[in-house]
Each structure stands twice: as C-alpha cells, then as structure tokens.
TrEMBL record:
CDD domains: HDc. It comes from the Bacteria. This is HD-GYP domain-containing protein. GO terms for molecular function: phosphoric diester hydrolase activity. PANTHER family: CYCLIC DI-GMP PHOSPHODIESTERASE PA4108, CYCLIC DI-GMP PHOSPHODIESTERASE PA4108-RELATED. Residues 146-342 form the HD-GYP domain. Gene3D superfamilies: Hypothetical protein af1432.
Length: 417
C-alpha cells in the first residue's frame, strides 16, 4: 500500500505517484521510479505537499555523482532546461497519441460503413440473391484492394459493440477480412484471395434457414438441434443455387468450412485430400472467431488464448501450415489482448503492424488520464516490451472498465501510413 511522504524525503530509487493532474507535471505518467538527482529536483520543484510512496516497488540507490541537496545555479539552469525538454517531449507524445486516435477513428468509420454494407446485402440473400452477390463482390473487392497492396498492413481492434442479433454480421466480416489476409500470406493469387473473401462472407448463410431460438441458445443443444445446425453448409448451397453467378471456388468454402482433415468434420466427413485449399483457410479463421465468440459468451477466449487453444487441440483437424501462418499473421499478441508491459503498466493491444509484429500498439491504463486521452504507445518507439498476457477477468473493475476488453472482438485492416 502507498504511503504519503514529503517531496524532501524522496530518495533515488523510490517508486512514487504524483498526486496532481497529468497536465500539471512534465513526466509521461504520474507513476515513476526516481532515477536521477535531476529528476528528484524537478519533482521537488513542483511544490507538492506530498507524494505517494510505494515501498514494495522501491530500491534505494546511492548517487555518488552529485549532492542532491546542493542546488547550484548551474544545476538550476540545467533543471529548467531538462524540465522544458521533458514537457516538449510529453506534448509531442500527446500529439502523436491524438494523431493515432484520429487514425483509429477513421478506421472505425470505415468498419462501420462495411458493416452497413454487410447488413444490407444479407437482407437480400433470400429474396434477391443475385443482388446480394453483386453487393458482396463489390465489398470484397474494396477490402481485397487494401489487403493485396504491397504496403505494410495494420490490423486494428475495433471497439464498437454489436447487437446480439447482429453477431452473424460481425462474424462474417471478421472471417472475411482475416481469411483474405491469411490467403495473401499463404501466397494465394489475387483471384483466390477474392474467392476466399466471397466464400467467407457467405459461409454461414445457411443459418438464415435455422430458427433463431436454436442459434442463440446458450445452454446445451439437443442432438436434433445439433444435427439441424450441421445442415447449414448444405442449406447455404441451396440458397446459392438460386443464382449461377457464384464462383465454384467460393461455393467450396460454403460447403466445406466445417470439414476437418481427419474426416471428423461435417457435413460430408471429408478427408484432407478432398477438402478445397481455400476452404482449409476459412476453416482456420472460422474456428478462431468461434472460440472468441461462442454462443455462451461466458466461455469466450481472448484472441491470444484462442490461438493457443487451436494450436494445442486442433492439430490433425486444421491445416498445420494454415494455423502457423495465422499465428504469425496475428502476432503473438493479437489486437484485443490485455498485457503487462516491461514498465509494469497494463494495457490492451489495439493494433499490430505487419512489418513489426513483436511491437504492437498498446492503449495504456492510467487512472489519472481520461480514457479518451489515454496514451496509445508503439512499444518499439518507446523501448518497451510485453512481460505477460493478463486474463481480462483478472483485471480490477476500474481497469476493466477503462481498457474495455469487449466480448465482441472485431477487426479491420488498413494500409500503414
């Protein structure tokens, strides 16, 4: 537990917290470890009545380079200069965070527009399937143009919450985006990437013919209900049979996205050789998203945990190459993962960059900074690393509310600026 001490009693190595607003001091955070005599003098110059001292996190350091009580004119000038530099650096980082947030807002707006297109085209599937396919082809083409570009890609966590009855729309958009990225990483052709996107967009349309009370049931399904749900690939093909404009490669995805390499899947219990290579790609992404968003959300896994579960338990069922590439593509810490950083701050991964997968962008929890102004830091630029993953359920309520690790984990992709 922290104790109050006077600034004059602070020693080098002390872990402290400044009891003032974030904008009233030049440090990047209110919590810090006093590492130099100059830093100590700057803290004492803030004219605070007290600071919070954390004994368990402190280690007293003996500084032989200077007498911390001897404030000469030279020291005063150096302290003013250093404080000014720190303030300028802080302001620059605040502006960078604001720019990062503006970029995220732009991505969220593009995601919302794509979601609106998904809702619209899905409403046409049963009555006007040709129009639905045309709309889907246009949407997939737009997304594929971004994914197929030579530029580095940024995979963003989208913080918009979805309505329960729209979970299918979020699911198919998630699976379409991630499956196209996976197809690109597996060196599929541009046409194959687009077929993957189109097949993924329609992979669950057969569920439109299944009663909603079965689809939304959170308790165990009866055997007849399970068998009914297992019909959705065939029901999807029946809907697509209403038009001849759906590519055969995408139809294979709709038909086979629940087939497993060992023959234990459905609806046809196909073995590895009989499963289309594009269906194998979508099957991996579909499994991942279903682990993140099961019908019973109390069983939901974090993105990091979902990848771990897949790799440990789905060998022999899902393609090994596809799973390894999925993990490589998403990063060790996918967007949506709550992490403890090397400086002991807690945050949530907001984005991973395809050209620096080990250094994601992390939104930092700081009780003294309003959430809408929370710093989003790039680990590489700040010389930070991730110490461990934290389960969202283990977070204190105030940290959980701040970081807001949503049950609905949605992704969107854009080119890196």
């Amino acid at each position: 537990m922290p104790v109050k001490i006077a600034p004059k009693d602070i020693k080098l190595g002390y872990a402290i917290k400044l009891p003032v607003g974030w904008m009233k001091h030049p440090f990047l955070t209110n919590k810090l470890i006093v590492e130099s005599a100059q830093q100590l003098r700057i803290i004492q110059s803030l004219e605070l009545e007290y600071v919070y001292f954390y004994p368990e996190r402190s280690a007293v350091v003996i500084d032989t380079s200077a007498d911390t009580t001897d404030c000469t004119v030279t020291q005063d000038l150096a302290d003013v200069q250093r404080r000014t530099e720190m303030q300028l650096d802080k302001e620059q980082r605040i502006e960078q965070a604001k720019a990062h947030r503006r970029e995220l807002q732009k991505t969220e707006k593009a995601f919302a527009q794509s979601m609106a297109q998904v809702r619209h085209l899905m409403s046409k599937v049963q009555g006007r399937p040709l129009n639905a396919i045309e709309d889907a082809t246009q949407l997939i083409s737009q997304l594929a143009d971004t994914i197929l570009s030579e530029d580095a890609l940024v995979l963003h966590l989208i913080s918009q919450a979805g309505k329960e009855q729209e979970s299918m729309y979020f699911h198919v958009l998630n699976v379409s985006i991630l499956a196209m990225m996976l197809a690109k990483n597996l060196n599929c052709s541009a046409d194959e990437v687009r077929w993957v996107g189109l097949g993924a967009m329609f992979h669950d349309i057969g569920k439109l013919k299944i009663p909603s009370q079965i689809l939304r049931k959170t308790t165990g399904l009866t055997n007849p209900e399970q068998n009914f749900i297992k019909l959705h690939p065939k029901l999807g093909l029946e809907l697509l049979a209403l038009t001849q404009h759906f590519p055969a490669e995408a139809k294979a995805i709709v038909e086979q996205h629940h087939e497993y390499l060992d023959g234990s899947g459905y609806p046809a219990a196909l073995n590895a050789d009989a499963i289309h290579k594009l269906a194998r790609i979508v099957a991996v992404v579909n499994e991942f998203d279903n682990l993140c968003h099961p019908q019973d959300m109390s069983q939901a896994r974090s993105p990091h945990h979902a990848l771990s579960v897949m790799y440990k338990t789905m060998k022999g069922k899902l393609g090994d190459l596809e799973m390894k590439m999925m993990i490589k593509m998403m990063g060790i810490y996918p967007p949506g993962t709550v992490v403890l950083l090397s400086d002991q701050r807690v945050g949530i991964v907001m984005a991973v960059n395809s050209d620096s997968m080990l250094y994601p962008d992390v939104l930092i929890y700081d009780a003294d900074v309003p959430r809408l102004e929370a710093a989003i830091v790039t680990l590489e630029a700040n010389k930070l690393s991730i110490e461990k993953v934290i389960k969202p359920k283990a977070l204190p309520p105030e940290v959980f509310a701040y970081l807001n690790p949503r049950a609905q984990v949605s992704y969107f992709v854009q080119q890196k600026n």
